[in-house]
Amino acid sequence: MDRGVHSPREIEYKAFAKVTRALKLSADDTASNIGKRAKALHDNRQLWTILATDLAGVGNKLSETLRADLLSLAAYSISQSSRAIKDPALLPGLIEINTNMMRGLGTKQ
């Protein structure tokens, strides 16, 4: 187990990677998979809610424009996650959003 110190970006990247992997594994639209899908979507909503809370915080150092864009994306992802439990066709869009977030978090600053 890696016990090193991680930057906030690395922690966020790992959180998105874990949730995105779960979303991919739950994408099969079968009745037996609904429990996995519900858990993955719950975790996705939770991740985006935590991110939105941080973005709205006074101490957030991102630009106002970027924060607004990410808050809008968070609201969309949370909403789509709620809808995707009954409509698995929405999963690829959520996976793409998370993958793009991982790309952004993985770039050096």
* Major sheet details: none
CATH class: Mainly Alpha
User: Could you spell the SSE succession in H and E letters?
Assistant: HHHH
- CATH overall fold name: Four Helix Bundle (Hemerythrin (Met), subunit A)
Strand content: under 5%
Low-pLDDT ranges: none
Per the principal axes of the C-alpha atoms, what is the gross shape? globular
Any guess at the CATH architecture? Up-down Bundle
Structure annotation, total helices: 4
What is the CA–CA distance across the termini?
26 Å
Structural class: mainly alpha
Q: What average pLDDT do the residues reach?
A: 92
InterPro entries: FlaF
Pfam family, one: FlaF
Protein name: Flagellar biosynthesis regulatory protein FlaF
Short summary:
The chain is built from 4 helices and no strands. With 109 residues, it is mainly alpha-helical.
Written description of the protein model:
The chain has helices at 8-25, 34-56, 64-84, 91-106. It is globular and about 45 Å long. The protein has a single domain, classed as Four Helix Bundle (Hemerythrin (Met), subunit A) (Up-down Bundle). It is mainly α.
